[in-house]
């Protein structure tokens, strides 16, 4: 491939930074994928002995969380790809669509990924990471980004060993241990810049060249996660009698989703692109953005699972594990939102950590209460934070981005 051809694959600094329709199309698979993850979390809290003890439920949650982190890493790598490379080029579109199909296979394999479909999940994940990276190694000759992909390919090759080996183990402990090791390798490699002995590490960050694009991609994924919550709660209502209590549970789920949306987008969510542009170190700031969104999306997923639990038995007795799910999701979301606020404004407003403490305190006293009441308590905390944001902003000029670095 000629140098000119390589240049055509790269995203231009002067080109529009808005995500393309292809990227929005790609996200549709993740609506389905998140739905499968939420379904697995709900099963963790309801099947057999798992529903009776908090420790066993959290152990099961850890297995499902492992699958979620694998999906998140695939999505993040794809967002980086369309930030570094021109998504209007046919070759890049092929990579995105191939990753989209692979993500669909991963979502299908989730239900049995820790049993009969483990090999499908692991082999698809490895094929996506290794195949995509190898493509850029072969096509970016003569460009600095080829070295970045060569370093990443080494790390993905190393992590492929525990991914594929784990798929052949019947023991859950062995499989989970190997897959956890594989994920640690993948995440650590990306965090450190894919360091390889004698070859060094990558110091190229997509945030430095396409921060605005990546900012929009992350908030679009938040919208996908919120949309999944609405989809899951609506489908859950249809799986049982449509009575007053369950209809109230649906209304409560919708209100909670609206509050999560409101807390996200006002005001940090609106100016994330500006914060990235104003930062003296967009790569470092971008890593904080990734952590913040991972925490927030995880919180939304747990909140969605909690809402489904409320819809299943709104007037029953909430088990300890159920209370953790219903209140823990919003708490995790607020933790991520606090990091997000620090990225935009170099500060964290007090209502967010106070809200986390209140949710933790309520968890101690709400065990055994009706799940509908537990969900209402979580919504009340979120409502208090949203109202506090509105009061603080009333009559004041819109706050401008002020990143910490």
From TrEMBL:
Keywords: Membrane, Transmembrane, Transmembrane helix. The chain crosses the membrane at residues 21-39, 64-82, 94-114, 120-140, 152-171, 248-265, 291-310, 322-340, 352-368. It holds the Pfam family LtrA. It comes from the Bacteria. The keyword Metal-binding does not apply. The keyword Membrane applies. Coiled coil: none annotated. InterPro entries: Low_temperature_requirement_A. This is Low temperature requirement protein A. It comes from Micromonospora vulcania.
